[in-house]
């Protein structure tokens, strides 16, 4: 199971939590008001398949009827995809979010890795990836874009060889775009009509609603249909179903969020350059992977914890090891607390 | 997929919905206040495995550490059990909630039925059931107690032959006690230490929180451990995790609810006796299965719908057919609207 998704200790309110990639601006006001207004009426079952929310989502995305599926967070859909498609062979672009491997193995898939290395700044060579797919027998290729925890983003146009390669084998591209809102890049959503593509989206990171559990998938109708057969009923709670259309319509919140990240990510990067033991990897997401000099991620983490600063160590990500940490871009005071504690650590060593 | 869990039409606010078995008193006040107070802070991930809520639950139930597991509604745990245990052969006491069959078949189990018949008022003969288990090779027996949709309750002491029979084959008893709070009967929870028993509980029916999604399982530690291996992360939302201990502690709400049902169920039964086309089955739950004269459930349902009254027809329950409806005990005005519309229907015929 994934290591954590936020800090839960006794000092949780006073801690500077840079471990979870949640928008620190907090949830959209409209959603908070909605939840309060719905609280007294929570007696009713949520709509069994969330059809009203899906219809509204399909309109907002401009995709056709039956092109979406909702999840109790994006994670439900990773597991649902794995058990509905049940591919014999899966290729996962690594290092990445470790629920993919667990999900596919849980349902009997043979999981191979396409490893992006430190030497190439964790950037996937899309031609090599396409070649591997063409010569293999992978029914599914998983890529997270931007990737977690590396922050690497691959442009939509660069997916062409991979899509062509997959088409030859009738394979499916599973693209996790949970962090795409931050990337300012183009989505692969334009490919769902003509290719076997499934795109995963999370509403809870960008909209700061991780406790609520809401994500969605959008894909080729044949994939969505297969997933529907295995979908469990009532998985998305009533608050999440009602909140989804509100979020899709809230352009102001999106703008405010992107403005915030623009400045605070720059600030974090500048501050990181003042820490002699840390080396940031270029990121198109709302978090930054940092190489820790001398593989001292564990020591740094312990030092930070004592000062109430929580980060994500990366030893459980396939192909990273203990030389890296991931820090989420948060409000300036958290960044400052992290930076000064990190400087302190490397000064001591 | 289950037919429905509440009515979702355009006139949902003015409709008399007797289709879903939800406590009409509405959610406990403390939980509503909790949700409102948490709404602004929903940014954080729920605890990945809900360990704080589980610990509190285990204390309240008086069961040992590691004896419980939480679900995004009770339904999550039906599917989780099926994929974690993956029994070759399952015996389901029917007619009952139809997610069991779907869940086990989804994961490749061979599902057999132990059918309780109309002739025996849908009451299971526990000796015959034990005999069937002893002579068969069922790794799991599923029984819902009180049963949905029949309302039949089997006393804890009457499970002894079945438990003995299962023990011989090292089989597991899966007892769905989602409606046991209404029955005033003894739970099978006392058996989890010494038998392979898994008990399912729903918090959302009795506590009127179906939109929130919270249920739990309690069972022999070896079963819970197996389920943990297949548990998906963050399935239970943050509101549900915080609400659970509040509900367990709210004795006042429980008393108020049981008082309400005592009188309103009696009222409904008396009123039903005035409808010449309906014949209620004795129920130990908060709903009543009624035989409809001349198998006219569908006609009655259509008549009621036109008058804004929604009930549960039962044609999709295995072994019932179209001769029955299920009505939930609700507030008096709903009961009265149902009864007078039903009288009208049978007068017309």
Record keyword descriptors for this entry.
homodimer, 349 residues, alpha/beta, Aspartate Aminotransferase, domain 1, Aspartate Aminotransferase, domain 2, 2 domains, seven-stranded mixed sheet, four-stranded antiparallel sheet, 16% strand, globular
Walk me through what this model shows:
The structure is a homodimer of 349-residue chains. By secondary structure, chain A is an alpha/beta fold. Chain A has two domains: 16-26 and 252-348, Alpha-Beta Complex (Aspartate Aminotransferase, domain 1), CATH 3.90.1150.10; 29-249, Type I PLP-dependent aspartate aminotransferase-like (Major domain) (Aspartate Aminotransferase, domain 2, 3-Layer(aba) Sandwich), CATH 3.40.640. In chain A, 39% of the residues lie in helices and 16% in strands. Chain A has twelve helices and 13 strands. In chain A, strands 2-8-7-6-5-3-4 form a seven-stranded mixed beta sheet, sandwiched between helices. Chain A has a four-stranded antiparallel beta sheet with strand order 9-10-13-12, covered by helices on one side. The longest helix of chain A has 22 residues, at 251-272. The two termini of chain A are 33 Å apart. The model of chain A has no long low-confidence stretch (mean pLDDT 95). Chains A and B meet through helix 1, helix 3 and helix 9 of A and helix 1, helix 3 and helix 9 of B. Chains A, B: Its cofactor is pyridoxal 5'-phosphate. Chains A, B: One of its GO terms (molecular function) is pyridoxal phosphate binding. Chains A, B: This is Aminotransferase.
């Amino acid at each position: 199971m994934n290591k954590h998704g936020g800090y839960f200790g006794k000092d949780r309110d006073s801690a500077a939590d840079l471990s979870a990639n949640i928008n620190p601006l907090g949830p959209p006001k409209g959603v908070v008001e909605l939840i309060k207004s719905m609280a007294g009426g929570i007696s009713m079952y949520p709509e069994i398949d969330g059809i009203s929310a899906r219809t509204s989502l399909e309109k907002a995305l401009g995709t056709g009827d039956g092109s979406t599926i909702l999840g109790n967070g994006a994670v439900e859909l990773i597991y649902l995809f794995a058990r509905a498609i049940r591919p014999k062979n899966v290729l996962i672009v690594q290092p990445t979010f470790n629920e993919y491997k667990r999900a596919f193995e849980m349902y009997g898939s043979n999981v191979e890795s396409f490893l992006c290395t430190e030497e190439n700044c964790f950037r996937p060579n899309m031609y090599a990836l396409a070649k591997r797919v063409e010569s293999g027998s992978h029914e599914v290729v998983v890529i997270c874009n931007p990737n977690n925890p590396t922050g690497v983003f691959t442009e939509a146009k660069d997916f062409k060889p991979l899509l062509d390669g997959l088409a030859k084998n009738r394979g499916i591209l599973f693209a996790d775009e949970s962090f795409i809102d931050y990337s300012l890049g183009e989505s692969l959503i334009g490919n769902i009509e003509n290719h076997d593509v499934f795109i995963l989206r999370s509403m809870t990171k960008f909209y700061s609603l991780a406790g609520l559990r809401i994500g969605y998938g959008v894909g080729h109708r044949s994939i969505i249909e297969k997933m529907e057969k295995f979908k469990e009923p009532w998985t998305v709670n009533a608050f999440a179903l009602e909140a989804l259309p509100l979020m899709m319509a809230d352009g102001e919140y999106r703008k405010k969020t992107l403005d915030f990240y623009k400045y605070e990510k720059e600030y974090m990067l500048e501050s990181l350059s003042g820490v002699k033991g840390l080396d940031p990897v270029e990121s198109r997401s709302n978090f930054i992977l940092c190489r820790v000099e001398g593989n001292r991620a564990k020591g740094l983490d312990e030092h930070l914890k004592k000062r109430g600063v929580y980060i994500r160590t990366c030893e459980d990500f396939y192909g990273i090891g203990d030389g890296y940490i991931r820090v989420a871009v948060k409000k300036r005071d958290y960044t400052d607390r992290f930076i000064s504690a990190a400087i302190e650590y490397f000064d001591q060593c």
